[in-house]
Amino acid sequence: MSIVRLSCCGRSWVGADRAHCCRRTAGCGHVFDDAVVWDFHRRSGACLDPATLGLDRTKNGIWMSPTSHS
Fold first, then answer.
1. Pick from 8, 19, 57: which is nearest to 49 by CA?
2. Do the beta carbons of residue 61 and residue 55 sit within 8 Å?
3. 33: left (phi over 0), alpha (psi -120 to 50) or beta
4. What is the C-alpha to C-alpha distance for residues 17 and 22, in angstroms, rounded to an integer?
5. What DSSP string describes the chain?
6. Buried-state track 15-43, b at ≥16 Cβ within 10 A, e below 16
7. Nearest in space to 21 (alpha carbons), one of 2, 3, 48, 1
8. Rounded-to-integer distance, Cα 2 and Cα 6, Å
9. Cα 53 from chain centroid?
10. Under 8 Å CB-to-CB from 15, ≥6 apart: which residues?
């Protein structure tokens, strides 16, 4: 199994399942654990602050649901 490294908007992350909210398409630039968490931070086409939604941030800057790492 190979490690997938990606980067965009000045951010880098590991993992093909991550979801990046790209600044080039008017996003916030954050990286999320998966598409479900990415969808959760978008309401009515606008980005919401992940910290105010109760999401946790890993030491590598990936936002994730509190239940996904318990």
1. 57
2. no
3. alpha
4. 15
5. -PPPEEEETTEEEE-TT-EE--GGGT----EESSHHHHHHHEETTEE--GGGGT-EE-TTSEEE-GGGG-
6. eeebbbbeeeeebbebbbbbeebbebbee
7. 48
8. 13
9. 13
10. 4, 6
Residue found by looking up tokens 């990415």 in the block: 38
The residue length of the chain stands at: 70
Query: Rounded CA gap, 34 and 12, in Å?
Result: 15
Token pair recorded at residue 29: 């630039």
Its pTM stands at 0.85
pLDDT confidence of residue 36:
94
pLDDT tens for 33-67 read 999 999 999 988 899 999 999 999 999 999 999 87
pLDDT at residue 41, as a whole number = 95
